[in-house]
Write a structure and sequence with these properties.
The structure is a homodimer of 303-residue chains. Chain A is an alpha/beta fold. Chain A is built from 11 helices and 12 strands. In chain A, the strands form 3 sheets. In chain A, strands 3, 4, 5, 6, 7, 10, 11 and 12 form an 8-stranded mixed β-sheet that branches. A two-stranded antiparallel ribbon of chain A has the order 1-2. In chain A, strands 8-9 form a two-stranded parallel ribbon. The first copy, chain A, is elongated and about 75 Å long. Chain A binds a DNA duplex (30 and 30 nucleotides) through α3.
DNA sequence: TTGACTTATAACTAATAGTTATGATATAGT
DNA sequence: ACTATATCATAACTATTAGTTATAAGTCAA
């Protein structure tokens, strides 16, 4: 529980944008405008200078922001303290995750967490790393999970689990029985790749380049916009591709896909947990973080 | 601006009654029940033990109450600070007043105040002294104005203006030309009095008894339920009565009533301002209190 | 057990918050 | 200077939340 008007106000103050704030709190922009107008009416003072694109807090706004943060902290603390008394963990945890971890890992983790804490509602929001970081900074989400490196952030970063990018192919493919394949061999096979601009495509190209294989030398037959579509294509024998082992888990179990790793260098990266440095966590979030720390990710992948 | 759910919760916590709280915040009792239920749902904990008629805070309730008070203080402070910046005094002042001061003095005072502070909304609630004290303690009103003595309260009491109870009569009455009348003469004239249980009746009887005139010796012809009805009756020559000079002001000006004071002892009492000892006042209330301090009540009565 | 008192529930209404569609305004690029 | 674009404001409508009246269901005391 917290004050909705003040929450909206704080988000605008932090992002310095009505539209960005609206995105973060999952509201439309006019809704944000109206809430701010209502506050300005209540306090009889303009809270933001909107001279064009640049939005700044007025002195009154600055003042309200200070109080609003304190008020929100009290709300959070009250909830936490009462949670301690009742023993019951209850509330909402909002998680942001980038594609792979959001689609293939978090659903299982969240389900397991909910078995232990049935009164905690979990919201999972899937977006790219940039947005996750932004949402997190503006308190639009409680924690973030991203793949790859996050730098220069005023956020706490912790490795959660590692991820291996593996070669996938149809079980009928000649490589299907081989434990590993040399990177140079990739030029001989039709390769299915993500669209231009995709983060996954970028890291794959970077990896291949590092090992002397330039992207233009690849027989790129198909460009698909999602991991799911790539898997389908590979299952149908249209070519090979590289995806996260987590994303291939189900198909490996069913035997509709086979994997191979690279001879030269294993293609691994980490999934990281991001959170704000603030110590003011809700009881639900606390429980989630503790739960996560002892979560057996290894079992998950091998099961 | 403040949190409505918490406001309702605090009032229930302070009065230890849903129905009494509903009266104080001018809501119906079911509305209060629903708000409390909503809070209990939010925090996943019962906040009150309602075992029969006795309502007590649960440990979770105690805790929330502590936080709620802090939160409300922050809301008030924020409003005040912003008010200081803008210079504009804006908000709501809720005044409780007992009958005479509420009906005959406060309307003028409030009108004058509003000329200087047009952005302050004033709510005036007229009730008996007992209720005023109760509302004030539970923060249902910001200040109270009562006639007569208030004792044993954890409230601040300040004399505002004095009030004289005077004999009123028709201009055609034989006493109309006399500046004062002896108390003993009252037995000879038909006397119009307030109903049993009225505070005004009580103090009149007390005064008369003190001066050796027992209520049963009075020719009590009519018993009326309001000061206005008594004035009408006296204007029509049905008898004489004793009312506050403030209440008779308009009729004295128009000449439809005449007054006399008592020979033996002037019948005076004070109107007092009551407020909580808390220092957390809104900017509007502050302004009102300051305005009141220098208000020329004397001019009011003589004008 | 009844009667007075207090809180809970149900059905309806009022008020508030949010949405879509569109307009206005300021900055950026040609 | 003139579009183009990005961003906030406004309007009309819808959904959600809060409050009301009427009534039921408990408690306690006689």
């Amino acid at each position: 529980m917290q004050d909705h008007k003040l929450k909206v106000f704080c988000t605008v103050a932090e992002t310095k944008s009505f539209s960005k704030a609206s995105e973060i709190i999952r509201l439309t922009q006019p809704a944000v405008s109206l809430q701010i107008q209502a506050l300005e009416e209540i306090y009889g003072a303009k809270l933001f200078n909107r001279s064009g694109c640049i939005i700044t807090l007025t002195p009154a706004g600055e003042l309200l922001y200070k109080y609003a943060k304190d008020i929100n902290t009290l709300y959070t603390d009250a909830e936490k303290e009462i949670g301690k008394i009742t023993g019951l963990v209850k509330g909402i945890v909002t998680i942001g995750a980038s594609s792979t971890i959001g689609n293939y890992i978090m659903p299982t983790v969240i389900s397991d967490f909910r078995k232990k804490f049935p009164k905690v509602n979990v919201h999972l929001l899937i977006s790219n790393t940039k947005n996750i970081v932004e949402y997190l900074n503006a308190a639009g989400i409680d924690v973030g999970f991203v793949e790859g490196d996050v730098t220069k952030q005023k956020l706490l970063i912790e490795k959660v689990v590692s991820d291996e990018m593996v070669l996938i192919m149809s079980p009928l493919h000649t490589w299907a029985k081989r434990p590993y394949v040399s990177i140079s061999e990739l030029t001989r096979e039709p390769f299915i790749i993500r669209e231009e601009g995709s983060g996954t495509r970028q890291i794959i190209e970077k990896y291949l380049t590092k090992h002397g294989l330039h992207p233009q030398n690849i027989k790129s037959t198909l460009t698909f916009g999602s991991t799911e579509s790539i898997k389908s294509a590979v299952e149908n024998g249209l070519g090979v591709s590289i995806i996260s082992r987590w994303a291939a888990k189900k198909e490996l179990r069913y035997g509709t896909l086979k994997t191979a790793t690279f001879k030269e260098d294993r293609f691994v990266r980490d999934f990281s947990l991001l959170r704000r440095k603030t110590k003011s966590f809700s009881h639900s979030l606390d429980s989630f973080l503790v739960y996560l720390k002892s979560y057996p990710f290894d079992k998950l992948l091998s099961s």
